[in-house]
Amino acid sequence: MTEHKFHFGKGMGGAALPVKVVPRASKNEIVGVGADGTLRIRVTAPPVEGAANDAVIALLAEALDLPKSNIDIVAGLASTQKLVSIIGIDPLTVDEILKHKSAKPEKAEKPAKAKKAAKPVKAKGDKKKN
Predict the structure, then answer these.
(1) CA-to-CA distance for 130 and 110, rounded, in angstroms?
(2) Is residue 99 exposed (0-12), middle (13-18) or buried (19+ Cβ within 10 Å)?
(3) Helix, strand, or coil here: 28?
(4) 75 within a domain of the structure (yes/no)
(5) Which of 35, 29, 18 is CA-nearest to residue 94?
(6) Which CATH number fits the domain that encloses residue 83?
(7) This prediction's pTM
């Protein structure tokens, strides 16, 4: 059996978070969690030279009361869809804090509306009878 050059150590607890970012917004805010589970964030920074990414990290660090060094964008650096890694806090705590700090409270799903019956279509040859 070959010996490995590396050894696995005890990992740090954390969470992975899908995020949708809207850059150049009017203010920095955590909007809420979408139906697909993606966290929606708005930042004032433009998506130029990593400014929006830095703003996302700063906003999440402040909201979660963590140092910025515990938060990293691991996928989507040049996209509005990102995957953010958060170290030092468990996923349930992240979920609770971000739902509490979001600008829009989570809404219960509305029941589907019943569709109205379609009106019958008259053929061109049909005439009104009086």
Answers:
(1) 45
(2) middle
(3) coil
(4) yes
(5) 18
(6) 3.30.1200.10
(7) 0.69
